[in-house]
Write a structure and sequence with these properties.
mainly beta, about 15% helix, about 140 residues, ten-stranded mixed sheet
Protein backbone atom coordinates (compact mmCIF):
# COMPACT_ATOMS: atom_id res chain seq x y z
CA UNK A 1 0.00 0.00 0.00
CA UNK A 2 2.72 2.51 0.89
CA UNK A 3 4.52 1.87 -2.41
CA UNK A 4 1.31 2.49 -4.37
CA UNK A 5 0.60 5.64 -2.39
CA UNK A 6 4.17 6.92 -2.94
CA UNK A 7 3.92 6.13 -6.65
CA UNK A 8 0.65 8.10 -6.95
CA UNK A 9 2.14 11.08 -5.09
CA UNK A 10 5.24 11.11 -7.31
CA UNK A 11 3.10 10.76 -10.44
CA UNK A 12 0.88 13.67 -9.39
CA UNK A 13 3.93 15.82 -8.66
CA UNK A 14 5.34 15.08 -12.12
CA UNK A 15 2.00 15.90 -13.77
CA UNK A 16 1.66 19.19 -11.87
CA UNK A 17 5.20 20.18 -12.82
CA UNK A 18 4.53 19.40 -16.48
CA UNK A 19 1.29 21.39 -16.42
CA UNK A 20 2.90 24.41 -14.80
CA UNK A 21 5.68 24.41 -17.42
CA UNK A 22 3.19 24.09 -20.28
CA UNK A 23 1.22 27.06 -18.99
CA UNK A 24 3.78 29.81 -19.47
CA UNK A 25 4.40 32.66 -21.89
CA UNK A 26 5.49 31.64 -25.34
CA UNK A 27 7.06 33.87 -27.98
CA UNK A 28 6.64 32.67 -31.55
CA UNK A 29 7.50 33.64 -35.13
CA UNK A 30 10.18 36.25 -34.38
CA UNK A 31 11.34 38.00 -37.56
CA UNK A 32 12.83 41.23 -38.86
CA UNK A 33 13.44 42.83 -42.24
CA UNK A 34 16.93 43.22 -43.71
CA UNK A 35 18.79 46.25 -42.31
CA UNK A 36 22.20 47.69 -43.29
CA UNK A 37 24.85 48.27 -40.64
CA UNK A 38 24.24 51.61 -38.93
CA UNK A 39 20.52 51.57 -39.75
CA UNK A 40 17.43 51.01 -37.65
CA UNK A 41 14.91 48.19 -37.90
CA UNK A 42 11.97 46.50 -36.24
CA UNK A 43 11.48 43.03 -34.78
CA UNK A 44 8.07 41.38 -34.88
CA UNK A 45 6.67 38.34 -33.05
CA UNK A 46 3.66 36.98 -31.18
CA UNK A 47 3.39 36.54 -27.41
CA UNK A 48 0.97 33.86 -26.23
CA UNK A 49 -0.15 33.98 -22.60
CA UNK A 50 -2.15 30.81 -21.84
CA UNK A 51 -2.01 31.46 -18.09
CA UNK A 52 -4.56 33.03 -15.74
CA UNK A 53 -2.02 35.69 -14.73
CA UNK A 54 -1.17 38.96 -16.51
CA UNK A 55 2.44 39.79 -17.30
CA UNK A 56 4.29 42.78 -18.74
CA UNK A 57 7.06 42.98 -21.29
CA UNK A 58 9.46 45.51 -19.76
CA UNK A 59 12.28 45.65 -22.31
CA UNK A 60 14.27 43.79 -24.94
CA UNK A 61 17.96 43.42 -25.75
CA UNK A 62 19.71 42.29 -28.91
CA UNK A 63 23.49 42.08 -29.40
CA UNK A 64 23.10 43.23 -33.03
CA UNK A 65 21.98 46.76 -32.02
CA UNK A 66 23.31 49.61 -29.90
CA UNK A 67 19.83 50.06 -28.38
CA UNK A 68 16.59 48.04 -28.38
CA UNK A 69 13.33 49.76 -27.43
CA UNK A 70 9.66 48.80 -27.28
CA UNK A 71 7.71 50.99 -29.73
CA UNK A 72 4.18 51.49 -31.02
CA UNK A 73 3.61 52.81 -34.54
CA UNK A 74 0.46 54.87 -34.98
CA UNK A 75 -1.19 57.20 -37.45
CA UNK A 76 -1.63 60.76 -36.16
CA UNK A 77 -3.03 63.49 -38.39
CA UNK A 78 -2.23 61.51 -41.53
CA UNK A 79 1.39 60.98 -40.44
CA UNK A 80 2.83 57.70 -39.20
CA UNK A 81 4.76 58.13 -35.95
CA UNK A 82 6.36 55.91 -33.32
CA UNK A 83 6.11 56.21 -29.57
CA UNK A 84 8.40 54.38 -27.14
CA UNK A 85 6.51 52.16 -24.70
CA UNK A 86 7.62 51.83 -21.08
CA UNK A 87 6.08 48.35 -21.00
CA UNK A 88 3.59 46.23 -22.91
CA UNK A 89 0.77 44.53 -21.04
CA UNK A 90 0.20 40.83 -21.74
CA UNK A 91 -3.27 40.02 -20.33
CA UNK A 92 -4.16 36.51 -19.13
CA UNK A 93 -5.29 34.06 -21.82
CA UNK A 94 -4.38 36.44 -24.63
CA UNK A 95 -2.23 36.92 -27.68
CA UNK A 96 -0.23 40.12 -28.17
CA UNK A 97 1.07 40.71 -31.68
CA UNK A 98 4.16 42.74 -32.51
CA UNK A 99 3.67 43.52 -36.20
CA UNK A 100 4.44 46.15 -38.84
CA UNK A 101 2.34 49.27 -38.23
CA UNK A 102 1.87 48.42 -34.54
CA UNK A 103 3.92 47.19 -31.61
CA UNK A 104 7.53 46.24 -32.36
CA UNK A 105 11.00 46.11 -30.86
CA UNK A 106 13.00 48.93 -32.45
CA UNK A 107 16.64 48.12 -33.15
CA UNK A 108 18.60 51.37 -33.12
CA UNK A 109 22.14 51.49 -34.50
CA UNK A 110 22.37 48.03 -36.02
CA UNK A 111 25.99 46.88 -35.68
CA UNK A 112 26.18 44.69 -38.79
CA UNK A 113 24.31 44.07 -42.03
CA UNK A 114 21.26 41.92 -41.35
CA UNK A 115 20.54 39.96 -44.53
CA UNK A 116 17.72 37.60 -45.45
CA UNK A 117 18.37 34.21 -43.88
CA UNK A 118 20.50 35.61 -41.02
CA UNK A 119 19.44 35.01 -37.42
CA UNK A 120 20.23 36.68 -34.11
CA UNK A 121 19.16 36.26 -30.47
CA UNK A 122 16.65 38.62 -28.86
CA UNK A 123 16.05 38.55 -25.12
CA UNK A 124 12.67 39.75 -23.89
CA UNK A 125 12.53 40.83 -20.25
CA UNK A 126 9.16 40.15 -18.58
CA UNK A 127 8.02 41.33 -15.17
CA UNK A 128 6.87 37.89 -13.96
CA UNK A 129 8.16 35.39 -16.49
CA UNK A 130 11.72 36.70 -16.42
CA UNK A 131 13.90 36.56 -19.52
CA UNK A 132 12.79 34.70 -22.63
CA UNK A 133 15.32 34.38 -25.43
CA UNK A 134 14.13 33.87 -29.00
CA UNK A 135 15.86 33.53 -32.34
CA UNK A 136 14.95 36.25 -34.83
CA UNK A 137 15.09 35.33 -38.53
CA UNK A 138 15.72 38.03 -41.14
CA UNK A 139 13.10 37.79 -43.92
CA UNK A 140 12.38 39.77 -47.06
CA UNK A 141 9.06 41.61 -46.75
Amino acid sequence: MNIKRSFVIVLLAIMLTACSRAASLQVEEAWARPVPAGGNGGVFFTIENPTDQPDRLLSATAPVAEVSELHMSMMQGGVMSMQPQEAVEVPPRSTVRFEPGGLHVMLIGVRQDLKAGDTFPLTLHFEKSGDIQVTVTIKQP
